[in-house]
Design goal:
The protein is of the alpha/beta class. The chain has two domains: 59 residues; 148 residues, Ribonuclease H-like superfamily/Ribonuclease H (Nucleotidyltransferase, domain 5, 2-Layer Sandwich), CATH 3.30.420.10. It is built from ten helices and seven strands. It has a five-stranded mixed sheet with strand order 3-2-1-4-5, sandwiched between helices. α3 crosses α4 and α7 runs parallel beside α8. The longest helix is centred in the C-terminal third of the chain and has 17 residues.
Amino acid sequence: MPDTLLRWHRRLVRWHWTYSHCGGRPPVDIKVAMLIEQMARENPGWGYKRIQGELLGLGYRVGASTVRRILKGLRIPPAPQRSRITWRQFLRTQAATMLACDFFHVDCAVTLRRLYVFFVLEVSTRHVHVLGVTGHPDGAWTVQQARNLLMDLGERAAEFRFLIRDRAGQFTEAFDAVLSAARIEVVKIPPRSPRANCYSERWVRTVRSEVTDRMLIAGLRHLRAVLDEYAEHFNQHRPHRARNLRPPDHDASTTAPVTDLAAARIQRRKILGGLIHEYERAA
């Protein structure tokens, strides 16, 4: 058949004349695509042209339409939709100048008396201030604890701009006024939203799981002594994941030297009668 003969001829020509498929737009290097994704996620306010300019400064020539195509394939929305600040982003951005405070309670053994602990946490370093323990946390008592906090901070009080608290009745206008006089703005979390004060809630869980749920508290003086010892351990020794496994009072940028276990001797120190242990190299 003529059609069959012509088809064979076209097939022979196609097999004989082979060319490399080098036409069209060259593909974007995977490293450049990953860099575009990183810039878009780390900088929500950057548009396609802004990312294109940043790449040009690094020596990568990529068009704005290519940036748009890559981000669209990754389901990353345009800059106006990415630039909305969430509560979590606000907390992370303001962490260096932020304090968080809250109460938690402990029930005494035998008497079942309920004691309330008031603490303040420095969000950036996770350093905790256990300010007071009482059985009746009224407004006047809480105001005095605010004054005690400013005394503990001293000149460092000027480094903080915000304090996060809930809407409990113990926090009166006088409490806010004491902090406002030190130029610390009080930020109230939404009603019934404990996660908005997540840093304080996380510390409450830590102190309960490591201390108060594992021992019987005899009274107010006993609880105060226990919390003071634990706070010193927490600030000076306990590692924290958000600080590269460094304690709150240690520099997170420094790395401890590697220890030769064959030559060094490790000693254990008991905290709270052996409830917690600390380990360090013997002198």
